[in-house]
Design goal:
The complex is a heterodimer. Chain A is mainly β. Chain A contains 1 helix and 3 strands; from the N terminus they run αβββ. The longest helix of chain B has 17 residues. The chains are: A mainly beta, B alpha/beta.
């Protein structure tokens, strides 16, 4: 496999399952077993109900774009205010 | 519990920001503005018994307040860092008042300083940003504020020239401020909109400029305030709020936690926005001022653009706003950028506004803003007649 030039994530113990799945081209999202809400990004507790009973659910990767913003920018810049 | 009239600002120290780091150190700058503020208050170093500071981006250190206090030769009964970004100085003001009201100390030195050194030297502990934001292009503040500005334009029809007006009027104020970094020539709306587009829709002159500098202010008990040589500037109300860190997870792009912070501050003061004589809203970008004026209740949500066009935001105008020039013209010496709104409100209320003095101004609204419209601290300050 050729080298990957873009920045690679440094998974934490909490996010590792997400990135390992991504490497397999699978989308895993955390889901709270108690309140059933989806959680993104991966967290130690459910940010809604604080339950620590979280499961990983495989998702299709399909969804609806609710809002989009376009940010034309250079990858690097050093503006001068003078 | 209320902090109304429990403590007052009695002295300030502030450096003229510079674009060059020179051979200054953040601790050296802190020492200079601290000495200036203590002398300005008519106190001696031994009178200071509380110490609040922020960790400079250019010289981060662990267990920082004790180190900084040691360098300054200050012994304190209460010391801490306040780490809420640009809201830190406003956050320090009410924390100082709370410590005084609790009887823990009598005179609190609040001090921040930084160098215009490339990059953020703090250790990259925020792995969430590294993992889930930066790789997808959400890098730095420009992107977040561009999203906010773009969304504000979409939802409410806010126009580029309305945002530019904030920078133009604030520059008019800066022309009368010898301490401002950019005080040599006026700006027009065309100048702002003709400046380089950095991240659409933000132009160069709508974006704060990093500088070297610092500021300090002293918050004192009523007893200490009585023997100050300056008129005490009383804290009437304070409020703080934060509901996100990354703008990605903010409940709204266009309504900020300033709504809650300002409502708490006005409720504590028993006053309303119409009772204010001038305002010092944090201005890292022009859109920040528009969102702040809306969320703090100076106009309705979505009408901030029209509001800044209809009102004269200069020191001589009907709605004086950031009479020091705002950070946009004053410059942003790290956390000292957010201190400039606090020190300018104190300066004006003490009647030391010089050529930009707002006439008969006895009450001010100040807001400090951290991150991407995340940490918010609002203050209501008053000089008693």
């Amino acid at each position: 496999m050729s080298t990957y030039a873009k920045p690679l994530p440094k998974p934490s113990p909490i996010s590792r399952p997400f990135w390992e799945a991504a490497k397999r081209h699978e989308l895993l999202l955390q889901r709270c077993e108690k309140c059933r809400r989806f959680i993104y990004y991966p967290r130690p507790l459910c940010p809604n109900c604080m339950s620590d009973k979280l499961e990983w659910q495989r998702c299709s990767g399909l969804g609806k774009v609710r809002r989009a913003g376009l940010l034309p920018m250079r990858p690097t810049f050093s503006p001068s205010w003078n | 519990m209320s902090l109304r009239n429990k403590a007052a600002a009695i002295g300030i120290g502030e450096l003229k920001p510079t674009k060059e780091p020179g051979d200054a150190t953040a601790l050296g700058l802190m020492a200079r503005v601290s000495a200036e503020a203590i002398a300005d208050a008519g106190l001696e170093k031994k009178d200071i018994d509380g110490f609040l500071t922020g960790v400079p981006f250019s010289d981060p250190g662990m267990i920082y307040p004790g180190l900084a206090a040691e360098v300054l030769g200050i012994s304190a009964r209460m010391l801490n860092i306040v780490d809420i970004g640009g809201a830190s100085p406003a956050g320090m003001f009410w924390r100082a008042a709370a410590a005084i009201d609790a009887g823990m100390c009598n005179a609190v030195l609040c001090v921040v300083a930084d160098l215009n050194a490339a990059g953020d030297h703090r250790p990259p502990t925020v792995s969430v940003m590294r993992e889930f934001e930066a790789p997808y292009g959400n890098i730095g503040a420009n992107c977040g504020y561009a999203l906010i500005a773009r969304r504000h334009m979409f939802e409410f029809g806010t126009k580029p020239e309305q945002m530019a007006k904030v920078a133009v009027d604030q520059r008019t104020n800066a022309l009368k401020n010898p301490l401002a970094t950019f005080n040599d020539k006026p700006l027009t709306i065309n100048d702002v909109l003709g400046s380089r587009l950095i991240v659409d829709p933000l132009h160069l002159f709508e974006i704060v400029s990093p500088c070297t500098g610092g500021a300090a202010f002293i918050v004192a008990s009523p007893e200490v305030a009585k023997r100050s040589k300056n008129p005490p500037i009383w804290l009437l109300g304070a409020g703080e709020n934060c509901n996100h860190s990354s703008i990605t997870y903010a409940p709204s792009l266009t309504t900020s936690p300033i709504r809650e912070a300002a409502a708490s501050a006005f409720a504590m003061a028993g006053l309303a926005p119409r009772d204010m004589h001038f305002v010092c809203p944090y201005d890292c970008y022009t859109i920040t001022v528009i969102v702040t004026l809306e969320d703090a209740g100076f106009c309705k949500k979505g009408q901030g653009g029209a509001f800044v066009m209809e009102h004269d935001l200069t020191y001589a105008g009907d709605f004086p706003c950031n009479t020091h020039g705002g950070q946009l013209s004053f410059g942003q010496p790290g956390l000292g950028g957010g201190a400039s709104h606090v020190t300018e409100a104190i300066r004006q209320l003490m009647g030391r506004g010089g050529d930009r003095q707002v006439k008969n101004a006895t009450r001010a609204y100040v807001n400090g803003n951290g991150g991407i419209m995340s940490e918010q601290a609002s203050l209501i300050l008053e000089r008693r007649s």
